[in-house]
Amino acid sequence: MNNFKLRGIIIAVVMIAGLILSLPTMVSLLTPYQLADNWLGPLGKHIKQVKLGLDLQGGMHLILKVDTDKAVTGKLNIIASTVKSEMQQKRIHYTKIEVVAPDSIAVTLRDPADQDKLTAILNEQTSFADPSTETIGGVTVFRYSVKRDEIQKIKDSSISQALETIRNRIDQLGVSEPSIITEGKDRINVQLPGITDPERAKRIIGETAVLEFKLVDEDHSLSNALAGDIPQDSYIAYMKETNEPILLKKQVELTGDTLNDARVKIDRASPYISLDFNAQGARDFERITGENINKRLAILLDKKVYSAPVIKDRIAGGKASITGRFTDQEAKNLAIVLRSGSLLAPVEILEERTVGPSLGKDSIHQGLVACAIGGVLVIIFMIIYYRASGMLANIAVILNIMLIAAFMSLVGAVLTLPGIAGIVLTIGMAVDANILIFERMREEIRLGRTPKMVVEAGYKHAISTVVDANVTTLIAGLVLFQFGTGPIKGFAVTLCVGILTTLFTVLVGCKWVMEWFVNSKNVSRISI
Amino acid sequence: MLEFIKPGTYIDFMKYKWYFIGFSLITSLIAIGSIAVQGFSYGIDFAGGSVIQVQFKNPTTADDIRKALKPMGMQDERIQSVGAVSDNDFLIRTSQTEDTNKGFGGKFSSELEKSFGKGNFEIRRIEMVGGAVSKDIKTKGFLSLIWAAIGILIYVWWRFEFKFSVGAIVATLHDVIIVLGMFSILRREMDLTVVAALLTLIGYSLNDTVVVFDRIRENIKKQQSPNYDLAHVMSMSISQTLSRTILTALTVFLVVIALFFLGGEVMHGFAMVMLIGVIIGCYSSIFVASTIVLFMSKSGKSSS
C-alpha cells in the first residue's frame, strides 16, 4: 500500500500544480483580461497566462529576405569611391574604375606599372584575391575579386545589421513584445503582436533609408547630358517631387552613417526633417559646405533627390534639414527610418500573415465554442455508455485540458488556432485510452471476475495497447513540430503535450481512483 | 449496460477480404487518377499568392468588390463570401504577391476606400506567401509526411514484426491517398493545415491499427496448436476490438464535427480531412491492415 499512497501523493501534487499554473489562463479566457489581473492578485502577476499566437490575438508575421548580394555590391561601391580619391591624392592616373557585379572591381590604369600601388590601396580596404588581367584593344584592365571569406563576412554583417536596424525601427513603432529573429541563412522572421497599421509597419521596415549628400555637377550642361553626352563622373537623377532631371556628381560626399538624430519639425505648417550629425559628420559637413559655397548640394534618400539647395555659407554645428512636400505621417516615417540607420542590404517581404484583432477574437470565440460543444458531446456519450466509469473518464478529460494549459504556461508555449484544434482532438483521443481499458474490464467482468481482479487485469492487458497507440500519434506530432512553422507548430505542441498528459491522467490518475474504489469500498460490482 | 456490439460476436471478416481489397483498390485508383489528371487546387501556402479577408459594414456582394478592385488589375482574383451572408465577410484570393507589386496591401485598401468609403470596411486578415517560401513549404510538407511514415514504420517494426509494420504503413498510405483524392475530386484547397490534418490522421489511423494488431498478437500467443488458422485469429481479434474501434471513432467524430461546423473558416480544411479520415481510418484498420499481414504470412501459417 505504500506504493499506492505515494502514487496518490504524486497525483495530488501534479493536480494542484496544474490548477495553480493554469488558473490565470482559464480565468483570462473566460473573462475580460483586466478582470483576470485584479482577480487573481499576486497569482496573476507571477504565473504567466498561456501566450496567444498572432492568429488569436491579432498581429503581423513577416518573413523578410535580406538581399546580401546587394550588400556586397554596395560595399564595393563605397570601396571604389574611396580608392578613387586615394588615387587622386597619390597621383596615380586611371581611366576607369568600375564595380563589376557581383564581387569585383575593374580598374584601367593609365600606366600599368602602377599596379602594385593600386593593389596596396585596394587591400587597405578589404582583402582581394590576386587580380586577373585582361587586355582589350591594347588597354590592360585589372580585375580584383573580393576574397570568398571576406564576402561571407560582408553578407553576415549585412544580416546582423539589418536585424539591428529593423529592431530599432520597430521599437520606434511602439509594438509591445515584438520578436525579431534570423531564420536560415538570409531570412528574418518578424512577429508583431497587436499591430494596428500593418501597411505603415511594412513601409517602415522595408525602407532602405540610404541618405547621401552629393554635389550637383554645374561644370557640365544638363541638356548635353540629356542628349546623351554624360560626363564620366556624373549621372542624371530625378527630383522626387517634380520628376525634374538633375545632373549629379557620382562621388558621395557624406552619408547618413554620420547622423546622430533625425526629428520632424514644422515650419509654417509644413513639416520638414531636421538632421543632427555626430562630431565626425559635423566636421565633414562643415568642410564640404566651406569648400563649395555657391554650389548646390543634393540630398538623396534611397537614390531619390529630395532637395538640392545652394550652399550659401560654411555650415558649422552639424545641423541640416530635408524639405519636401511631406505629409505629417510621411515625415514621421522618414524620421524613424533615418534615426534607426540605413539597411546595408535591401529587404524583401517573402511572406506576410496579418490577422486583425477582431478576427483574432472571433477565432478564440469559435475555438472555445467548438472545444466546449465537442467536449460536452463526448461527456454525455461517455456517461450514457459507461455510467460511473464514464464520469471518471470525463473528469480525467477535463483535468487533462487543465494540465495542457498548465504545461504550456510553464514552458511558454504559444496557443494558436490549430493548437485549439489539437486540444479538441485530444478530447476525442484521450477518451480512447479509457475506452480501451473499460472494454477490457467489461471482458473481465463477463468472465465473472471480482471487481479487484477486473481492475487489475483490465489495466494490465490494456496498457501496452494504450502506450503503442499513443506513441504512434506522438511520432506524427513530433515530426510536425520539427517541420511545422507558426500556427502549425502550435498544433504539434498541444497534440504532443496532450498525449503525455493523457497517458498520465489515464494510466496513473484514473487507475489510482479505480484501485482506491475497489480496495477501500469493498464494492460488489463496478458501474461500467 | 449499453453495448453496440454484443459480447462474443464473431464476424468472419477475412472471408470477405477480396471484396475489401477490390473496394480499396478501386477507390485508391480513382483517387490517384484524379490526383494525376486534375491535381490539387493549392492554397497560397503551396502555390504562392495572397488572401485578403474583408468585412463590410453594409450589405455587399462579390460583384461590388470586383468592380471596386478593377482599377488594381489583380491577377485571377477569386472572391468568396465566408460565414453567414449577413456577416458581409469576404475572402479575396489572388496569385499576386508583394514582391511583384510593392505596397500591394496599401493599394488594395485605398481602392476599397474609393468605392465603399473609409471606415465602412475592415481588413481582417492578409496572408501573402511569396514564391520562394511556398516552394520551401511544399518541400517541408512533403518531407514531414515521409518522415512521419518512416518513424512509425520503425516503431511498429520494433514493437511487432516487419509484416505488421508493412500492413500498418499500407493501411495508412491507403487513408492518405483516399483523403488526398477526395481533396482533388472536390477541388478543396490544399494548405498547411491540411498537411497538419494528414499527419494527425496518420497518427489516428495507426492508433486504430495498432490496437487491432495488439489483439492479434495476444491471440496468437494463446494458440495451442502450431497449425492454427491465422485468418480466423484475425477475424476474432477484429471482432473483439470492434466495439472499441466504433466507440473511439464515434467520440473523435463527435468532436471533429464540432470543429467542422463551429471552428470557423480557418479550421475548415483541417476538420474536413479529419471527418473523412476518421471514417476511412476506421475502415482501413478493420479491413485493410490485417488483410495485408495475412497475405504476407501466406507461406507459413504459424509464423507468429
Please render the helix and strand layout as text:
The complex is a heterodimer of chains A (528) and B (304).
Chain A: H1 2-30, H2 33-40, H3 42-46, E1 51-52, H4 54-57, E2 59-66, H5 68-89, E3 94-100, E4 104-109, H6 115-125, E5 132-136, E6 139-145, H7 148-173, E7 179-183, E8 187-193, H8 198-206, E9 211-215, H9 222-226, E10 234-238, E11 245-249, E12 254-255, E13 259-267, E14 270-277, H10 279-291, E15 297-301, E16 304-307, E17 319-322, H11 328-339, E18 347-355, H12 357-411, E19 414-415, H13 417-446, H14 451-483, H15 486-520
Parallel strand pairs in A: 1-19
Antiparallel strand pairs in A: 2-8, 2-18, 3-4, 4-6, 5-6, 7-8, 9-12, 9-15, 10-11, 13-14, 14-17, 15-16
Chain B: H1 17-38, E1 41-42, H2 44-47, E2 49-56, H3 62-69, E3 78-82, E4 89-94, H4 104-116, E5 121-129, H5 131-159, H6 162-185, E6 189-190, H7 192-222, H8 230-262, H9 268-296
Parallel strand pairs in B: 1-6
Antiparallel strand pairs in B: 2-4, 2-5, 3-4
Mean pLDDT over the full residue set of chain B: 88
- β-strand amount of chain A: 15-25%
Number of helical stretches of at least 4 residues of chain B: 9
Cα-based radius of gyration of chain B, to the nearest Å:
25 Å
Instruction: Name the overall outline of chain A.
Output: elongated
Low-confidence blocks of residues of chain A: none
Spatial strand sequence of the major β-sheet of chain A: 7-8-2-18
Q: What is the tally of beta strands of chain B?
A: 6
Please mark out the parts of chain B with pLDDT under 50 across 5 or more consecutive residues, or reply none: 300-304
Q: Could you say which structural class the secondary elements and strand pairing of chain A correspond to? A: alpha+beta
Distance between the ends of chain A: 25 Å
Q: Major sheet of chain A: size, sense and barrel closure?
A: 4 strands, antiparallel
CA distance, first residue to last residue of chain B: 36 Å
Name the strands of the widest sheet of chain B in spatial order: 3-4-2-5
Q: Roughly what percent helix of chain A?
A: 55-70%
How does the major sheet of chain B shape up?
A: 4 strands, antiparallel
* Alpha plus pi helix count of chain A: 15
